Amino acid sequence: MPRDPVPLGFVFRSRAKDEKAAVAAQAQLTDSKQPRDPQAPKGRPTPKRSEAQSQRRSVANTSMTRKEAAKRQREERRAAMERQRQALAGGDERYLPARDKGPVRRFARDFVDSRFNIAEYFLPMAVVILVLSMVRVPALQSIALLLWLVVIVLIVLDSFVTGYRLKKRLAERFPDENKRGAVAYALMRSLQMRRLRLPKPQVKRGERP
After folding, report:
1. CA–CA separation, 62 vs 77, rounded Å?
2. For residue 151, how many C-alpha atoms fall within 13 Å in the half-sphere facing its CB?
3. Is residue 57 within 8 Å of residue 169, measured between CB atoms?
4. DSSP string, 24-76
5. Which of 48, 99, 122, 157 is the most buried (most CB within 10 A)?
6. Considering the entire predicted model, what is its pTM?
């Protein structure tokens, strides 16, 4: 008996299903050849490097509680302060504050520390003058006022000479370096008593820096 003709729609649908099945099999075969990340769950593709790093970072952040994170930050700050304190005492450039770093600032400190500065005796002299001015004797009060004027004039003159010489030495020693603020930095240091200066003096008096 002659067979009934097969409908064209059925033929096209079967061919489309076969093509889809072939494409799916090829994709499955390609995925199976890719190396799977041991940390990736089974049945899932290997994550990208950026995604894996973000996942590990999030896991590390969630594993530390807020209290532990705060404690760790306090310990890091305490260690940084201790390193800075030791640097101020020993002159270690690595851990000095930003205002004290650099060869220009170091030379300015050594220049001031190697000289006698009238300004560093300002506080002791100010105490003596204040005591004299409190005594109810007109002669002593007049002497105290005169001493005030003499001390102020001497400090101004000494600071002017120090600043001028330091500026000249810096221009000779560091012609290509940034010297902005170095003279003012040195003059502020000259106002402090030698034993109270930070960073600690690294040169002796009279020693050429």
Report:
1. 22
2. 19
3. no
4. HHHHHHHHHHSPPPTTSPTTSPPPPHHHHHHHHHHHHHHHS-HHHHHHHHHHH
5. 122
6. 0.62
Bond from prior residue into 199 cis (ω within 30 degrees of 0): yes
**CB 117, CB 125: distance < 8 Å:** no
Q: Fill in the amino acid letter for 61.
A: N
| 3-class state of residue 152 by DSSP | helix
Residue 72 has pLDDT above 50, yes or no: yes
Q: Scan for tokens 């402090």, then name that residue.
A: 192
- CB atoms closer than 10 angstroms to residue 44: 9
For 197, the token pair is 């200066």
Distance CA 115, CA 197 (A): 14
Confidence of residue 29 (pLDDT cuts 50, 70, 90): very low
Encoded tokens for 195: 């034993």
Which token pair is 201? 């003096």
The greatest distance separating any two alpha carbons of the chain, rounded to the nearest whole angstrom, comes to 149
Mention every residue, 6+ apart, whose C-beta is less than 8 A from residue 202. 91, 109, 110, 113
For 130-167, the pLDDT digits (tens) are: 998 888 888 888 999 999 999 999 999 999 999 999 99
CA 206 to chain centre: 34
61 vs 196: which has the higher pLDDT: 196
